[in-house]
Structure formats: C-alpha cells, structure tokens
Amino acid sequence: MGLRETFLPWPVLRQARAVAGLPGAGRGDRSGRGDSARSRVTDRLQPRTSTADRVVASVCPYCAVGCGQLVYVKDERVVQIEGDPASPVSRGRLCPKGAATKQLVTNPRRQTRVRYRRPYGTDWEDLDLDTAMDMIADRVLATRDATWTDEDSQGRRVRRTMGFAALGGATLDNEENYLIKKLGTALGAVQIENQARI
Ligand code: SF4
Fold first, then answer.
1. pTM (2 decimals)?
2. pLDDT (tens digit, 0 to 9) for every residue of the chain, 198 residues total?
3. What's the domain range around 33?
C-alpha cells in the first residue's frame, strides 16, 4: 500500500505539504496543483475509452458537417463516443450536440417501435413495421393519383404532383438522402428538401 493510501489523504493537506517541500504525498509537485491535488477517488477512476473492448469509426448523425466519431463498445454496448482525430473534416472535434451522441443511442426513452396516432385518436399505439409501410405506400399512391398534374395552367407539360413533399432531417445520411431524392423525383414530387440545406 503506497504512502498516498495511508498518510494524510486529504488533498489540501497533501498540497500544503507539497508546496512546503515536506516529504510525503506530492513529492516534486512544488505548485501543489499536480498529483498532490488528486483525491483517492480520482486516482481510482478510469476513462471508459480505456476499458472498451473495441472502437468503431463512425460519422456524427446530427448535421451535414459530418464530423468523424469513434464509438467505444464494451460488452456489445456503446459506452462512449468521442471525436475522431483521423477525420479530415473535424480533426477530433465535436460540437456539444455531437459530443452528446451517446444519449441518442443509449437513452432508455429512445423509441424503437413504430408509433401511430390515428385520426381523432387520443393516444399513441404501436404498429408493426410491415403495416406501417403498407399504410404509407397506400397514402402516397392515393395522394399521387389525386393530385397528379400533366400540364400547368399555361399548357406546359409538367408531369408532377404537388400533393406531397419530403423534408429530411440532419440525422439522415448521404445515402438515405440520395434514395429519398431518387424515389421522390421518380414519383413526380418536386418539393424535396433537407434541413441541412435550409
Ligand atoms: S452536429 Fe456537431 S459534431 Fe455533429 S456533425 Fe454537426 S458540427 Fe459535427
């Protein structure tokens, strides 16, 4: 057992001894702001990044800057997310929102099932994904049929629908936005936007 564990454990006393140059805790810490200022609790702490089983490179999901992230995993659970120094975009930095990405993944209140509130309903209900996808497809097709325009008021060929639009959020990645734009345009929609562009 070391001296720090048995002798004058209170940090302020160790600091005073270190500044006075007395033997004991904080040897060589003449400013009293180094080792002698650390409590035993702090001594026992370990960063989650040092105990992770593996580290996975990823990209922040929040905005179009696309800062690089390192996702630390232990026992198949995300334990920490930090900036990736190897990213040419962000060079290890994350803004406060990006630095809080871990809660996006691990928050116990995160919704993981489809939630549906039907017209005139007073509460949310669960839907299975297949049912929800069928409902969306039916409504998109019905709206397209009902609002399809071959020509505008001046007789010009437009072949479009103004009946639905897409507004993507910044948590969509490049590939998702590409597919949304591709699908929307193929359906005849012209109002396709993304938060990152606004
Ligand atoms: S939200 Fe912040 S950390 Fe994430 S990509 Fe945008 S600027 Fe980078």
1. 0.63
2. 555 555 556 777 778 878 887 766 556 777 778 877 777 788 889 999 999 999 999 999 888 788 999 999 999 999 999 999 999 999 999 999 999 999 988 999 988 999 999 999 999 999 999 999 999 999 999 999 999 999 999 999 999 999 999 998 877 877 888 999 999 999 999 999 987 776
3. 11-44
Pocket test of ligand 1: the residue of 97, 105, 194 to mutate, having most ligand atoms within 8 Å of its CB, is 97
Rounded distance between C-alpha atoms, residue 104 and residue 106, angstroms? 6
- The residue to mutate among 69, 71, 90, 172, having the most atoms of ligand 1 within 8 angstroms of its beta carbon, is 90
Q: Is 121 inside a domain boundary?
A: no
Q: Is 70 touching ligand 1 by the criterion CB < 6 Å? A: no
* Strands annotated E in 75-141: 77-83, 114-116, 125-127
172 in a structural domain: yes
Q: Is residue 113 part of a domain?
A: no
- 80-83, Cβ contacts within 8 angstroms, sequence gap of 24 or more: 80/47, 80/48, 80/49, 80/52, 81/105, 82/49
**Is residue 170 lining ligand 1, measured as CB closer than 6 Å?**
no
